[in-house]
Amino acid sequence: MPLATTRRAGLVDQVIDQLRTAVTQGEWPIGERIPTEAELVEQLGVGRNTVREAVRALAHTGLLEVRQGDGTYVRATSEVSGAIRRLCGSELREVLQVRRTLEVEGARLAAVERTEDEVAALWSLLGRREVELREGRWQDFARTDAEFHCAVVGAGHNRLLTELYRGLTEVIAASIATTSSIAPGADHSPEIGHEGLARAIADRNPDRAAAEACEFLDELLERIERA
Fold it and tell me: pTM, whole model, 2 decimals?
């Protein structure tokens, strides 16, 4: 999405909106350095102070990170995710506790509200996840696993819960990558594995789905305590 010259009043707000859209739509991926201040001034047709204020505002929300002498980098894809990253920091235990709170109820709702297409999507993601795990492709595995959990919550058709959970996407992917590196493949036990969760959702068994999600995340919490 090319940036457009800004013409109307409220320049800072307009620049903020354009920069936010470039981030949320993937124009600038997480970890990538955004254009320089001079480049943004030229593309947007506004002054340096306007660009500087917009960047500062998005850095405050956690979307961007300003590194003195290096540039400005994308830190998160939404303000919710950015706020969560700031709150959680590197405390994996807190991330897993929040995941458990949202995912247990998400699994319960999914078992009641899911469609056949959503069940098929869950099994497809599990198949892809298994291949990536077996081949040791940890980054791909973390992304697919996070996508699976998002699909579970989305299958509950609660828009607010889904949006809250999507705000956790980057933090969740990071927690999956970390727990996988602590004990790769340790979640293959059928009692705590994702297959049991998918089966409970397919069987429309909300209590078992919630129990599967809770037990799996409890196991992760215990695992980091032992690491």
Answer: 0.59
